[in-house]
Design a protein that fits this description.
- By secondary structure, the protein is α+β, with helices and mostly antiparallel strands.
- The chain is about 40% helix and about 25% strand.
- It has a five-stranded mixed sheet with strand order 13-20-19-16-17, with no helix packed on it. Strands 7-6-9-10 form a four-stranded antiparallel sheet, with no helix packed on it. Strands 12, 14, 15 and 18 form a four-stranded antiparallel sheet that branches.
- Helix 9 packs antiparallel against helix 13.
- The chain is flat, with a radius of gyration of 31 Å.
- The two termini are about 50 Å apart.
Length: about 700
């Protein structure tokens, strides 16, 4: 009973209510809100209240309107404080914005505001990103002023360039923020005018400041280029040019770096004059001019500059040679596709080569993978996955281009994906959760050759009735607790596991075991009194130990390492994360380093949710628990391969990682005092592993 009381207290702490605004005025947990034109609100709330416990007489639509209005005010306040240079206050306003957003999310299902929540969340993320960037700009500006005062001209020049790069990032963020703000205004009626106008003024001020610093620290330059307009891969741009100061003096350097579109070219410089060649490959045919930028070294005394060169692009068709491929493949067969791309025997680099399967007799196309050419060569290899249905296909390998300097070409070859024989084994525990009438079903699913088959659904039937689905792990094993149908009587009952193999290249399979259901409804064999007493003692001890483990795990899917030390994500760590989410995870790391674990966990959840919903093509307004359910219903929703975090941690699945993230998000939102740094560290670690494991794109 002590263990149960401990568990109850933990749950109570997690679910302690906070202010909810119903019927005009409400007070819970010490916070009061008045929904009038002259309304005031206590900025701090204790925690969230489950919307299911709100008084049914409450006016949730009025709550929604007040929350949206308050978030509009907070956004304007945050922008104004940022404009005044008070980033701490701007961040504090943004933190309250996040709390109000979580309150809106709590009632979103009741008032139909799920899409609104997704928009508001995106708006909040972009606003916080702008605060971080402006704060970084101010830090660099202070360092620049100190370097100038100390007479360190070289360091001042480096900082002037960093300031200009930061200016560009701020400009991009403000443009994105402006677009999101307008969308929010249109879709929800939230007034973002004041905030947008303030942010525009921030951008203009930073732009003017960065330009002034550039002129102060660096010598201005001018770039002139002369070249023939007609270009192609066979007839590249052959250009001559000069680079001088604004006073007309040749710059003092032996070589310069030029950026032509996205290609870096280094060329020798002789008394301010240079030559270079640019060979177009993926340049669109409708390109009318090329942007050429002079990129000085970080310690150079010269400022960057750019100019446009008029061009007319002609297309050429390359030759694609693909290696000989097997005529038939099957599950887990490793297939390597090697290709060579040339134009008149000259290798073409940096061009994507894509492979796909076109199913015979249908319009179905299955995209496989792609890779860029290096020295004209590209290789695509990997095992045949289960989710390619068996049958006849055309393997299409080619350049997926249209209207580019290099024409799109393809190579086609017939190939058969053969069905693979499978074997399914199943066994049933005779005594699991008697009171709930549940049994544990476990088994293995392998090929006829004994090769494990992972991430495949095994449907479980009891007495001919479907009662659940288990999913095989990377070892081809599954273990699932399923209920007995209500109409199942006493006696021997068949439990069947079935794999239908539909839309795969794996053979369907089934296996059957039995479970004994006595007339009194208790599953399994009858126990003597002594055995029941012994079992009771074991259960009591287990409950006590479980409560202690619960306190340590905090309902995360994996234990927390309380002795570990936390360091911000390194650049190598960030490189591991997908391009879609790495800015959010980097921000979460910074938030954790700045002792803001609640914000870090919220940002982690946003990163993981954005990745998974994008994979599944579903709205971002999905709730955390709906996200878990979606992953449980369809494991392809998660990244393909679980990542082993260390040699002692081989059993952590992506489902457990997602549970860690969702539970952490809920604890940050609902528990008084928020989430601990150690808990937030575990959430960030699991979020990185989830995003890193996204290898299916």
């Amino acid at each position: 009973m002590f263990a149960l009381r401990v568990l109850a207290i933990v749950v109570l702490l997690i679910c302690t209510p906070v202010t909810m605004i119903c019927g005009g005025v409400a007070a819970t947990g010490g916070a009061t809100v008045e929904m009038t034109d002259g309304a005031t609100a206590q900025n701090e709330t204790d925690a969230h209240r489950d919307p299911g416990t709100v008084d049914e007489d409450g006016d949730l639509e009025a709550v929604e309107q007040w929350l949206v209005s308050r978030m509009s005010d907070l956004l304007a306040e945050s922008s104004a404080e940022l404009s005044d240079g008070d980033t701490d206050s701007a961040r504090a306003s943004q933190e309250e914005y996040q709390r109000r957003l979580e309150q809106l999310e709590d009632i979103s299902g009741e008032v139909g505001a799920q899409e609104e929540v997704a928009l508001f969340e995106q708006l909040g993320v972009e606003q916080e990103q702008l605060i971080d960037q402006v704060e970084e700009y101010e830090t660099l500006e202070a360092e620049y002023a100190a370097a100038r005062e100390d007479g360190d001209e070289e360091r001042a020049r480096e900082l002037a360039r960093e300031l200009d790069e930061q200016r560009i990032e701020i400009e991009e963020t403000t443009q994105t923020l402006d677009e999101t703000s307008r969308t929010v205004s249109t879709e929800t009626g939230m007034d973002t005018t004041e905030s947008r106008e303030t942010i525009d003024s921030i951008e203009a001020e930073i732009d003017a400041n960065a330009t002034e610093i550039q002129e102060e620290a660096l010598n201005g330059t001018e770039l002139e280029i002369d070249a023939d307009e007609d270009i192609s891969f066979q007839e590249p741009l052959e250009a001559e040019g000069t680079i001088t100061t604004t006073d007309g003096e040749p710059i003092d350097a032996d070589e310069i770096e030029l950026l032509v579109e996205n290609e870096t070219i280094v060329t020798e410089l002789d008394d301010g004059e240079f030559e270079f060649e640019y060979r177009p490959t993926d340049l669109p045919l409708d390109t009318e001019s090329l942007t050429v930028e002079y990129v000085p070294a970080s310690d150079s005394p010269y400022a960057s500059t750019e100019t446009d060169v008029p061009v007319s692009v002609e297309q050429v068709e390359p030759t694609l040679t693909v290696s000989e491929l097997p005529s038939e493949v099957a599950y887990e067969d490793n297939v390597t596709i090697e290709s060579e791309l040339e134009v008149d025997d000259e290798a073409v680099d940096g061009i994507p080569i894509a492979a796909e399967l076109d199913r015979a007799g249908s319009d179905e196309t299955i995209e496989l993978a792609d890779n860029e050419t290096t020295n004209g060569s590209a290789a695509i290899d990997g095992p045949v996955p289960a989710d390619i249905p068996d049958g006849e296909y055309e393997l299409v390998v080619g350049v997926p281009f249209a209207d580019r300097a290099i024409a799109g070409v393809t190579s086609r070859e017939s190939i058969v994906v053969a069905e693979t024989d499978t074997e399914l084994e199943i066994e049933v525990d005779q005594l699991v959760r008697e009171a709930d009438r549940e049994v544990a079903v476990r088994g293995t699913f392998v090929t006829a050759d004994g090769e494990e088959i992972s991430r495949q659904p095994i449907e479980v039937f009891v007495g001919g009735v479907s009662v659940g689905t288990a999913v095989t792990d990377r070892n081809g094993e599954f273990d699932e607790v399923v209920p007995l149908p209500e109409d199942v009587g006493s006696g021997e009952v068949e439990v069947t596991g079935a794999y239908d193999g539909e839309e795969t290249n794996l053979e369907s399979a089934s296996a059957t075991s039995t479970v004994a259901v006595p007339s009194d409804g208790i599953i399994g064999m009858t126990m003597s009194l002594e055995r029941w007493v012994g079992l009771g003692i074991i259960v009591a001890v287990g409950l006590f130990a479980g409560s202690q483990l619960y306190r340590r795990r905090n309902r995360h899917g994996t234990p927390l390492d309380e002795d570990a030390t936390w360091e911000p994500l390194s650049s190598a760590d960030v490189d591991r994360v997908s391009e879609t989410t790495d800015p959010l995870l980097l921000r979460a790391s910074d938030q954790l380093s700045n002792d803001r674990p609640d914000d870090a966990v919220r940002t982690c959840y946003t990163a993981v949710r954005n990745l998974l919903t994008e994979r599944a093509g579903i709205p971002r307004s999905i709730t955390p628990r709906e996200l878990l359910t979606a992953a449980e219903d369809d494991e392809s929703f998660l990244p393909q391969e679980p990542r082993q975090t260390d040699e002692n941690d081989e059993s952590v699945s992506h489902s457990e990682r997602l549970l860690t993230v969702v539970n952490g998000h809920e604890r940050a939102a609902y528990r008084p005092g928020g989430i601990s740094t150690e808990e937030a560290r575990a959430v960030l670690e699991r979020s990185v592993e989830l995003c890193e494991g996204d290898e299916t794109e």
